Amino acid sequence: MDPLVILVLCLSCWLLLSLWKQNIGKGKLPSGPHPLPFIGNILQVDVKNIGKSLCNLSKTYGPVFTLYFGMKPAVVLHGYKAVKEALIDLGEEFSERGSFPLAERISKGHGILFTNGKRWKEMRRFCLMTLRNLGMGKSDLENRVQEEAYYLMEELRKTNVGLCAVRAKPTLDPLSHSLCPSPILAHALSLSLFLKKTISLNENKSFYSLPWCCLQRCFPALIDYLPGSHRKIFKNFTRTHNYILEKTKEHQESLDINNPRDFIDYFLIKIKQENHSQQLEFTIENLIATASDLFAAGTETTSTTLRYALLLLLKHPEVTAKIQEEIGHVIGRHRSPCMQDRSRMPYTNAVLHEIQRYIDLIPINLPHAVTRDIKFRNYVIPKGTSVLISLTSVLHDDKEFPNPETFDPAHFLDDSGNLKKSDYFMVFSAGKRICVGESLARMELFLFLTSILQNFTLKPVVDIKDLDTTPVASGFGHIPPPYKICFVPL
């Protein structure tokens, strides 16, 4: 071999090893599995089911440990006490978004999900205020959700296409009258403005489960050079952004600052207000990215939860029967469900809590990071270090929820049959980065599910014992296995 080549290789190895030692020496990080040079712990983590891997590693290394993705460390928090201590007790210090190269490549520093500092605080404050102005927590927004629920019921009653519902018992060929519920539920939960974008978001979510998505975190420089599924992700998000930009231009032409119609109008008004100030956060780029973030984080998660809820109710007809009995007592058949009903329906409320706990929709929170050097327990975590939060370890805590792998509404019912609240119910995360649309999601789930069960009997197209409810790992999320369902009008 050429001596010059050998020299270059030796120098490269020396440089990489030096950087490796320098990285390991920072702070006083928790112990963890021994990382390999350059690739870290990637071989010790199941990249298709990171949540399960973290649970297994915590049995050896405890509730706080360190993993290396490439040469970058990430501190893992496992269990309610460690998660609460970080996200709630030290919420400000753990409020930064951790490194996510693929998302950063797409968002380009805009939006709400993957930004930090002043921009993130401004966007979050604006989103919360605007959602309240649009009626979140008020009757105005409830009326809109009820209207969408009404249209969903109408779609489920249609039989002329042979796909949506049956008006009697399943036929000998029930598949010809059954519904794969994913598209129709996603459309019902989508704002009409973004209806056309549901499919591309579903595609993006599935791509996040591929092994290379973990590799790009280890070696972000590869994103621009390697072929693969991420190219399609870029195209999907480009289409989404272009669509929102097109609608934004339409809104600009018809904008009435005294009568804002939706999120885009409110943002455009804010842009006009800040036009002559030093404020640089409210721009068209941030409008597009933030609208895309809100839709991606809200619509897809809620539709997936509702789709999973229907599968669990198919699997547990005794639970469905109790909900329908409660609907009969509280709501009846002659008016639409409303949010005032929820407080008088403890069993239904408990079932909704248990559905969200059981499916564990987001096992690992989007990565956090610390805003400064922070002493956490007996460790020192350097500023900017990524932090992975295991929500699975909280939602499936066997002391708080006996037999956590079993679907059981009693997990949220006291001895008197009243709803039992739990601090462990962190399906929307906790602390400074808690989901901005939590109350909207709760409203949608309650109104849509009670509307469906008020109007339909759910029938499986296979034997109940053959229904599989095991969550399917899909990147950062869990999705239900494929299934079909018959909606039989009552």
From TrEMBL:
Query: What membrane topology is annotated for this entry?
Result: Peripheral membrane protein
State the source organism's domain of life.
Answer: Eukaryota
Q: Which GO terms describe its biological process?
A: organic acid metabolic process; xenobiotic metabolic process
Q: What is its EC number?
A: 1.14.14.1
What cofactor requirement does the entry state?
A: heme
Example GO CC term: the record gives: endoplasmic reticulum membrane
Matching entries from Gene3D superfamilies are given as: Cytochrome P450
Q: Which CDD domains match?
A: CYP2C-like
Q: InterPro entries, from UniProt?
A: Cyt_P450 (IPR001128), Cyt_P450_CS (IPR017972), Cyt_P450_E_grp-I (IPR002401), Cyt_P450_sf (IPR036396), Cytochrome_P450_fam2 (IPR050182)
SUPFAM superfamilies with a match to the protein in the record: Cytochrome P450 (SSF48264)
According to the UniProt entry, where is the signal peptide?
Answer: 1-25
Official protein name in the record: unspecific monooxygenase
